[in-house]
């Protein structure tokens, strides 16, 4: 009783790190399109990408099971063609964590992109820069504080996920048991000491992330663009 198994801590960091890394490219692309576009299609896309924030994690986990489960079309295809099973694996845990954390990164990145002075982007276009060149050489450097905050928030959300991860990856000791799941299992087994220690670790990490984000916000307030001029947006429905 009370002996701490380090595997859930290791797995939680591994899952959070991988899910955050895999969220970068789709998250940056989605944030860019949402920040530079408007219209009904943009509103629908924004709502769909934000939905995981308000959905109960178990509901999101259910959707993932329907899509990725062994009885689903996609799940059977992966197993028959490649011998790959996602449910009850660490891969499933990464996918679940990515789905719950990606919207947080998108919202943070979108806000950072939208705050960029439009005149800087216009000047880059006058110099002959392409839109993708402007994105990588102008927008990302100017938004790095907001992007960093988004990465930290997504990492923290992935680190603490319980419902979606439990639904997709299960609770297999030594294989898919993350910190949040380990806390639940410890309480169910009456091991309050270990549960308390894991809770303290999770709380410390969450506070560290929030503190880092607040520091970033203060730096952005002092040195970032505080007032963004009117932006000329295009309709995403034509993409």
UniProtKB/TrEMBL annotation:
The keyword Zinc-finger does not apply. The chain crosses the membrane at residues 15-35, 47-69, 81-106, 134-156, 194-213. InterPro entries: MetI-like (IPR000515), MetI-like_sf (IPR035906), ModB_ABC (IPR011867). Gene3D superfamilies: MetI-like. Residues 9-211 form the ABC transmembrane type-1 domain. It comes from the Bacteria. GO terms for molecular function: molybdate ion transmembrane transporter activity. The keyword Membrane applies. Residues 224-239 have a biased composition (Basic residues). Residues 220-239 are annotated as: Disordered. Keywords: Cell membrane, Membrane, Molybdenum, Transmembrane, Transmembrane helix, Transport. One of its GO terms (cellular component) is plasma membrane. It is found in: Cell membrane. It is a multi-pass membrane protein. Part of the binding-protein-dependent transport system for molybdenum; probably responsible for the translocation of the substrate across the membrane. PANTHER family: MOLYBDENUM TRANSPORT SYSTEM PERMEASE PROTEIN MODB. Belongs to the binding-protein-dependent transport system permease family. CysTW subfamily. This is Molybdenum transport system permease.
